[in-house]
Amino acid sequence: MTINAEAPQLDSVSVPDTVAPSPSAGPPDRSAEDPFEPLSVGAMVDRVAAMAVEKASHPWAFLMRSLVGGAMVAFGALLALMVSTGVKTPGVASLLMGLAFGMSFVLILVSGMSLITADMAAGFLAVLKRTMTVRVYAFLVGVGLVGNIVGALVFVAVCGAAGGPYLGAFAERAAAVGSQKAGQPVGTALLLAVICTWFLQTAMCMFFKARSDVARMAFAFYGPFAFVIGGTQHVIANVGFLGLPLLLNLFHHAAPRGGITWGWGEHGLLTNIGITTIGNLIGGTLFVALPFWVIARLQQRQI
């Protein structure tokens, strides 16, 4: 099996495995000679930007991919809480959560589904390359965010309605994690969200730079593994972490929710979504996409 590191390509878009030299392609790409040689930074930038353009050109398919991608992130949130329930040592609990959560981004990238934080960085690269307008970029981010949130909430709603193993100690763990994420000061939450996508979108770029299946999956796993054990804030992951205790309490009133609310106030889900969306946008665009684009341009000019 060979993993397609690009989004599933339709007839209107073709992104070759080895990108031909272009204004941003940088120095000659030795990957044509060695199938295990990573692509150049310029070739990687071209592939990531082309993925964003392809998604924006098929809005209904993009919406469905965002719904599925949001559910996949919630898979990771559920498993992370499950494996860390009852673990008293904070470092060990964080390690277990990261190991369980890592598979979510692997599923998204390998299947060609969509995650808003990845689309923020990819679309920004397309804007910098002038293959996407700012208006289309805003549309991409808006649709992707809504689709991911709805997809994640649908999955955690099913888990909340199920109850069973998700009550008792698990519900207490979910409430504790959700309260900790929702209760952080605005500045702290914002900067942790920046750090999150600094980790995650670097991993995405390395996924598209790699050529072997093993390397691609390892990079995809590293992103969520790093941001979870680093204690950072990811907007869609937090929909899972905050949504689970809220929905468990909705379906099973005895389940704790730790003071988390649905609204804009303190410990509010909407408040957290707003803060982390801004932080994730800054981290993925200014600290990942922009530097890689600048590097590609400088390599092309041989500076």
TrEMBL record:
Topological category with respect to the lipid bilayer: Multi-pass membrane protein
Record region (Disordered): 1-36
Segments crossing the lipid bilayer: 62-83, 95-116, 137-166, 186-208, 220-248, 268-296
MF (Gene Ontology): high-affinity secondary active nitrite transmembrane transporter activity
Annotated GO biological process: nitrite transport
Keywords on record: Membrane, Transmembrane, Transmembrane helix
Record localization: Membrane
Main location: membrane
Pfam family, one: Form_Nir_trans
Gene Ontology, cellular component aspect: plasma membrane
Alphabetized InterPro entries for the sequence: Aquaporin-like (IPR023271), For/NO2_transpt (IPR000292)
Keyword Transmembrane helix annotated: yes
Family classification: Belongs to the FNT transporter (TC 1.A.16) family.
Protein name: Nitrite transporter
